[in-house]
């Protein structure tokens, strides 16, 4: 019997009549990866893709949340802090960043960076497992299909952009960007998060069914001889003409998992003090600290930031502005009550270290300027010449915390020039760039929020 037209349309999946442009396109795909038989790996299939997807589903929300909180930690609504002035509604979640616990930013940013690095092999494996979907021909068979393909491109493009720019920033290669890292990473993050949420909502039921289709324990017990392609799937992940396997799924999962563990081991030490710092081979920062009190990480040297040694010499004076203007020498500051606290300093690149700082409380300096601690923010200005963070603001909560210091010494010795001599800011739970070095002026004023 002759086939009914509806049956033909059902197999096409596009619903176009025989002889239409859609039918012709499907029958004449371009050469290479657009042809279904180009992809011949016997390992690809819904189950393997879902395993990688499950790992990413557990890790990416943690990366996203810690990343967004990291941006909030800059208190970007305060003068001098806003690295993304045109963020619009993207800053709806901002709140007055706390000073307690002192280690929170250190742990949060370390988790953001290290987990991001650790998931790179899984992300690459996931992209490999679904790459035939990126070359589906024709590109869209219906409006719904076009929307799904567009969301897939946003998902893949967003993931690649966020991970790539993040890695380059960790390696201090952000100077190669033709754009500012902070707004680009923030905008890219929201695009990726939106695409990721839509993708999960659409694919989660399918992923659950695929994971239930076979046993992970069984696959981990199956060697190369027992490796067989997954059953054909309507999504087109399973090869139509699979080649003989050269590695088992167990081997592939072990390779990806081993790569993630290796990257974790070569990066986690940058957030920890002690022997593990020596293992942070993927970090461009100091892995081995000397015995001296100032022998710890310096991200930006005084010379690199254009700080004139003469300006930090004996003639240096700290200006305190509030209800009146006061000028203090370093000797004047040393004559004030000094306090010592062990506080971490942590950077957006993921490295952190805890040192012991001695200095004058910001709250006491606010009083000297005629302001009431808890009712005064401070605008900090540095001797730096034009650096991105040569000026920054601290909130009233940060000023009032008794552990917030204008540090003059570290580990019992005077600050070195590269660590901010003659004076620098140290605030608990603040991003490292807001612990301003080479301070020249503190302007206290009522809260702006």
UniProtKB/TrEMBL annotation:
Ranges of compositional bias, category Basic and acidic residues: 221-231
Transmembrane feature ranges: 47-74, 110-131, 152-174, 186-204, 251-269
Domain Oxidoreductase molybdopterin-binding: 315-444
Region of interest (Disordered), ranges: 1-22, 221-241
Swiss-Prot/TrEMBL keywords: Membrane, Transmembrane, Transmembrane helix
Keyword Transmembrane helix found: yes
InterPro entries: Mopterin_OxRdtase_euk (IPR008335), OxRdtase_Mopterin-bd_dom (IPR000572), OxRdtase_Mopterin-bd_sf (IPR036374)
PANTHER family: BLL0505 PROTEIN, PROTEIN-METHIONINE-SULFOXIDE REDUCTASE
Protein name as annotated: Molybdopterin-dependent oxidoreductase
Matches recorded under Pfam families: Oxidored_molyb
Highest taxon, organism lineage: Bacteria
Signal peptide: none
């Amino acid at each position: 019997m002759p086939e009914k037209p509806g049956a033909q349309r059902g197999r096409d999946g596009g619903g176009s009549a025989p002889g239409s442009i859609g039918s012709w396109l499907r029958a004449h795909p371009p050469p290479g990866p657009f042809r279904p038989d180009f992809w011949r790996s016997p390992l690809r299939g819904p189950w393997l893709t879902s395993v990688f997807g499950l790992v990413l589903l557990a890790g990416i929300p943690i990366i996203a949340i810690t990343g967004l909180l990291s941006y909030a930690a800059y208190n970007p609504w305060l003068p001098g802090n806003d690295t993304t002035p045109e963020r619009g509604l993207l800053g709806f979640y901002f709140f007055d960043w706390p000073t307690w616990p002192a280690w929170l930013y250190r742990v949060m940013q370390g988790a953001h960076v290290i987990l991001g690095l650790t998931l790179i092999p899984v992300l690459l494996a996931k992209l490999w497992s679904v790459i035939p979907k990126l070359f589906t021909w024709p590109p869209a068979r219906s409006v719904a299909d076009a929307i799904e393909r567009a969301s897939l491109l946003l998902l893949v493009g967003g993931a690649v952009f966020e991970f790539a720019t993040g890695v380059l920033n960790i390696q201090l290669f952000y100077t190669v960007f033709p754009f500012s890292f902070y707004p680009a990473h923030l905008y890219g993050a929201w695009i990726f998060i939106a695409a990721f949420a839509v993708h999960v909502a659409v694919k989660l039921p399918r992923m659950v069914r695929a994971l239930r289709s076979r046993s992970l324990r069984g696959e981990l017990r199956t060697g190369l001889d027992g490796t067989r392609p997954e059953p054909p799937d309507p999504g087109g992940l399973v090869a139509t003409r699979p080649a003989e396997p050269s590695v088992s799924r167990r081997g592939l999962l072990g390779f990806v998992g081993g790569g993630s563990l290796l990257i974790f081991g070569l990066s986690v030490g940058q957030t920890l003090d002690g022997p593990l710092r020596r293992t942070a081979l993927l970090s461009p920062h100091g892995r081995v600290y000397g015995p001296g009190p100032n022998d710890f990480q310096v991200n930006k040297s005084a010379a690199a930031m254009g700080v004139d040694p003469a300006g930090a010499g004996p003639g240096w004076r700290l200006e305190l502005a509030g209800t009146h203007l006061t000028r203090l020498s370093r000797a004047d500051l040393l004559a004030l009550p000094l306090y010592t606290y062990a506080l971490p300093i942590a950077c957006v690149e993921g490295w952190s270290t805890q040192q012991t700082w001695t200095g004058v409380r910001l709250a006491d300096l606010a009083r000297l300027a005629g302001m009431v601690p808890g009712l005064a923010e401070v605008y900090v200005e540095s001797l730096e010449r034009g650096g991105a963070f040569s000026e920054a603001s601290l909130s009233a909560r940060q000023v009032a915390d008794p552990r917030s210091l204008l540090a003059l010494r570290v580990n019992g010795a005077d600050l070195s020039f590269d660590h901010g001599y003659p004076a620098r800011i140290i605030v608990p739970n603040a991003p490292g760039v807001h612990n301003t070095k080479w301070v020249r002026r503190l302007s206290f004023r009522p809260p702006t929020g």
